[in-house]
Amino acid sequence: MTIESLQYLNGFGNEHETEALEGALPLGQFSPQKIKYGLYAEQFNTTAFTAPRHQNRRSWMYRIRPSIAMGDYQPMDSGLIRTAPITEIPAPPNVLRWDALPIPSAPTDFIDGLTTIAANGDANAQIGIGIHLYCANASMQQRYFYNADGELLIVPQMGGLRAYTEMGILQVQPGEILVIPRGIKFKIDLIDEQARGYVCENYGAPLELAERGPVGANGYANDRDFQYPIAWYEDVDGDFTLVTKYAGNLYRAALTHSPLDVVAWVGNSAPYKYDLSRFNVMNTVSYDHPDPSIFTVLTSQSDTAGVANVDFVIFPPRWMVAENTFRPPYYHRNIMSEFMGLIEGTYDAKEKGFEPGGMSLHNCMTPHGPEADVFEAASNADLEPQRYQDTMAFMFESRYAIAPTRFAMESEARQKNYLDCWGTLKKYFPNDQH
C-alpha cells in the first residue's frame, strides 16, 4: 500500500478494525488457534485489564512475528533526555523564557535530537509529564523507538514528519499534532530537510477529549476530526535497532527484522493525528477575557476531579469582540503550572521576544501576564471586532510544579532578561479617570 493511497479511520477513541491483507483480521474472536497467513496474535494494552469499559484502551495486533522476537537490551547514552523527578538542580519560582534551539549541523535524527527542557511528577509513579524539544535533520533509517514511560504528544513547529508505526503511517505538518501511545514502536522520517517541535511525554492517564459541559454537544475538538491509520506493514529482514526509554533510561536491542510487521489490528489504543485548525473555538461575545480552559484540546486527568495531570491548550486564530474589556490575558497567579510554546506568528500577550520555536515557563503561583507595552496598547485600543490571524500558540498546563533541567537553566537560549518586559509597568494610582 502506498502512502498516497492511505486512508484514515476517523473518530477519537473509537473501536477501529483494519487489515492490510484480506482475511488477516479474525472474526468472532481475538485469538483463534490458527490465524490466516500464519500470523501471531498479540494484545496491546495501555490501561489495566480491569479498567472500566469506557476507560479501557487495548488493541489486538496480528503480526508476522511477536514482539519478543528480539535481542537483549543493552544500556545506551541518554544524551540530553531527562525523566521526572528532575533533581539535578532546584526548581526556581522565576518566570523563564527561551529562544528556539538551533538545528544541529551533524546528522541528527528524532531520537538523538531530543532535549528535555523540564518535567514534573514521577514517571515511575505514572504522574506528571516530561517536556522535550526535538531538533532533527535526518530520518531514523534502520532504528525504531518506543517509550515505556509515557504517551507522546508531538507538536511540530518546523518541517513535516512521517511517522511509521506498528499500526500504520501518519504524516503531520506544523499546525497538526501526533499522539503515540505508551509502548507503540515507530520511526520518524523527515519530510523536509529540517524539523523542530515540542514533545509532551505524558506519564499519567491517557489523553482524552475535554468535557464540554454547558457548551453542549458540539464545539471544541470533535471526535470525527481525529484520524487513525489503516494497517500497513513491513516484511523486511536485516540489521535493525530498537531503542527503548524505560524508567528514565535509554536502552537498545538488536533486531533481525523490521518491528513494523502488524498486518491487521482491531481496538481503541493506537496512534492518531489532529489538525488544530479544526478546533471549534468558543469565546466571549459580551465582556471579559475567558479562562484558557475553553481552548483545551486534550486532557490527562489526575486523581482529583477537574485538576488535570496535563491539559493541552491552544490559542488559535479567532475573533475578539469583547466590549469594555481588557482583551489580552489578564494578570494572574494560579495553582496550575504553564509551559507555553509558539508554532507560528505572535502571541497576543507577548508581542516581543516570544518567537516560533521558543518556550516560556510560568510555574505554580508565579505571577505573569501581558508585557508592559501590550498592557498600554490594549488599555487604550479602540474596541472594534478584531481578527487574531496567523497565530498558533499552545500550552502544556499541569497541576504539578514544572522543574527545568540543568541544560534549560544554563542554556544560551535562556532569556535571562525576560523579567524586563514588565519593567516599565507604570503606577497610575490615584487616577479618577475611568
Question: Can you offer a commentary on this structure?
Answer:
The structure is a single chain. The chain is mainly beta and 434 residues long. The protein has 2 domains: 274 residues, Jelly Rolls (Sandwich), CATH 2.60.120; 138 residues, Jelly Rolls, CATH 2.60.120.10. 3% of the residues lie in helices and 36% in strands. The protein is globular. The N terminus is likely disordered.
In short:
The protein has helices at residues 372-379, 406-410; strands at 8-10, 16-19, 40-45, 58-63, 74-76, 96-98, 114-119, 129-136, 143-147, 151-158, 161-165, 168-172, 176-180, 186-190, 195-202, 208-209, 226-229, 237-246, 249-257, 262-267, 272-275, 296-301, 308-315, 318-320, 337-344, 359-362, 386-388, 392-398, 403-404.
**What fold name goes in the CATH topology slot of the largest domain?**
Jelly Rolls
Structural class based on helices, strands and sheet pairing: mainly beta
Rounded to the nearest angstrom, the radius of gyration is: 23 Å
Low-pLDDT sequence parts: 1-6
CATH superfamily of the largest domain: Jelly Rolls
Helix segment tally: 2
Q: Beta-sheet strand percentage?
A: 35-45%
Strand tally: 29
Q: Helicity range of the residues?
A: under 10%
Based on the coordinates given, report the CATH architecture of the largest domain.
Sandwich
General shape: globular
Number of domains: 2
CATH class descriptor of the largest domain: Mainly Beta
User: Average pLDDT across residues?
Assistant: 95
Strand order of the largest sheet: 1-17-21-13-10-15-8-7-29
Main sheet characteristics: 9 strands, antiparallel
Q: Could you tell me how far the N terminus lies from the C terminus, measured between alpha carbons in angstroms? A: 66 Å
